[in-house]
Amino acid sequence: VQGYTGTYRDTPVSVMASGMGMPSMGIYSYELFHTYDVDNIIRVGSVGSISPRLKLRDVVLGQAACTDSNYPRQYGLDGTFSPIADFTLLESAVSAAHRLGVEGNLLSSDVFYRRTEDTLAWGRLGVLAVEMESAALYCNAAEAGKRALAVCTVSDNLLTGEALSTTERQTSFTQMITLALEVAVDM
Questions:
Q1: 114-124 pLDDT, tens per residue?
Q2: Is 156 a catalytic residue?
Q3: pTM summary value
């Protein structure tokens, strides 16, 4: 695992790779919240658009995270737990975005190569984009009484088939990263 601590606007900020998927995010965020007493985790990464509202490179603020995963079942609740972002972090991100970001619901899926039509069904219910980590992060934050937010950039559009190249993914996500850093230093 790679982790770095540096400063942004004279504020210490740590950045860490969590790996891919809810199991990996679940382990890292649980340990950061419980073992290292981290209070805020902001996930940055890519998402695939399933909404006609989104274009490539749009920044999405994950207000909530639906999931097709069994991850929330570990809490033994009689019903379905709907993990959501921390409102303080979300509000800060919306303020910092100055109309750059779109807030809304994400789908955290356990399946990367899922049939497109199954994923698009979530879009018809207002879900904006699909990714693989936020629901686990939001669940762990809720259980720990901590704060979490997903700030993501649209790298693929499942409706149109458009996709950014590997090089574009590596070099053009600066708005998302700057936005996450602005939120981090405001906390």
A1: 777 788 999 98
A2: yes
A3: 0.92
